[in-house]
Amino acid sequence: MAQDVLTVAWKYLKRRNFATAIKLLEDRAEVYEDNFEYYLMLGIACLYVGDIGSSVTYFQQARRIKITDTRLLLGQAAIFLRRGETDRALQYYMEIQELEPGHKIAANAMEFIRTRGDYDTICRWVDTGRIEQFYPPLGPNPHKIFAIAVPVLACLIGCVVALLVIPKPAYTYGDRSEIQELKLSSEEKTNPQERDLSTSAYSYVLTAKQITDGYNAAVRYYYSKRDNAAQIEINKILNSNANFSIKQKSQILMTYLESPTFDTLTDNPEYAEVEADSNMYMDCWVAWGGKIANAVLNPDGTYSCQLLVGYDTGSKIEGIVTVKFTASPNIAPDQPVRILGQIKCEDQKIYLQGKSIYQSVKNGMR
């Protein structure tokens, strides 16, 4: 049964898949104009990803509709707290306490400001993510609960199997368990295409077989821990004439994909591949080497620069891409660097949302 966008987006938020929630919501801006929950959800999602400018905008739009919602007040207080404006933050926390006496998050935040609210400590908490304990709560992550429950259940089943001398199942997926909601229904297998192609423009027009094969390949890649390869197949489907239910399952699959490290990244696309077809590689992770230019540390603590991709040897620039970090990564600008980031799009231009860097200042990049 199809669910409304706000319900689906909230599920993404609970799974901490903020980028998908933001994209899904922003695509429905005209539908949910003047909807409080819509603006609140976008503000919270942007707050968690560190896009403070957008978060402020969405919270202000929500506040024009309703001003006494504690979730909204928590979000606005958190923004002031991140900036070190503790007096303004305290005003919001006191208002929350008036609305809900004994509100735990507000009380904890006020105690933090009283005992440890100096700017240096706040900066460290922002950098490490500890500040998120004062954000509007999202509730337990069902993905993590599932990840904990499955091993426990599997252990119990294993004991029963051992006692009854029943063979193990014929299939395994490493330490990624089978997810029933990812399976295509018989209807989806039979009719995977959108019936009316006149209502939308598609980057990829696929046959019925290409859609089902692509979706099944994405699921296989997920179980094989090739999350980039899975993301590429998902992107083909989301930008194609696949029907709504298959696209929705593809977006659910995205919530299970994990952010890699330099050591675990697989299927690392080249800059030229991404430049040639950015839709195919959106939300994929890359590790690109080069040198940086035009580095800027913004007033809200975020950091941006341009990466001269391939210029780590100083001989050839494959391309130039903007990189954004939620905090300064302390890159030495005169030395080669390798940046791990996720491909995003803004104003029809790709950029990297940076996660981590590798740089040897003394000897150059290894």
Give the secondary structure arrangement, pairings included:
Layout: H1 5-14, H2 18-26, H3 36-49, H4 52-63, H5 70-82, H6 86-99, H7 104-116, H8 119-128, H9 142-164, H10 186-190, H11 208-223, H12 227-238, H13 244-254, H14 271-276, H15 278-281, E1 285-297, E2 303-309, E3 319-325, E4 337-346, E5 349-358
Parallel strand pairs: 3-5
Antiparallel strand pairs: 1-2, 1-4, 2-3, 4-5
Helix pairs in contact: 1-2, 1-3, 2-3, 3-4, 3-5, 4-5, 5-6, 6-7, 11-12, 12-13
What does this structure look like?
With 366 residues, the chain is of the alpha+beta class. 47% of the residues lie in helices and 13% in strands. It is built from 15 helices and 5 strands. Strands 1-2-3-5-4 form a 5-stranded mixed β-barrel. A hairpin with a 5-residue loop joins strand 1 (285-297) and strand 2. It is globular. Mean pLDDT is 86; it is low at 145-149, 159-174 and 361-366.
Give the gist of this structure:
The chain is 47% helix and 13% strand. The chain has helices at residues 5-14, 18-26, 36-49, 52-63, 70-82, 86-99, 104-116, 119-128, 142-164, 186-190, 208-223, 227-238, 244-254, 271-276, 278-281; strands at 285-297, 303-309, 319-325, 337-346, 349-358.
List keywords for this structure.
disordered C terminus; 5-stranded mixed β-barrel; alpha+beta; 47% helix; 366 residues; globular
Number of distinct helices: 15
Specify the helix fraction band: 40-55%
Look at the helices and sheets and give the structural class.
alpha+beta
Largest sheet data: 5 strands, mixed, barrel
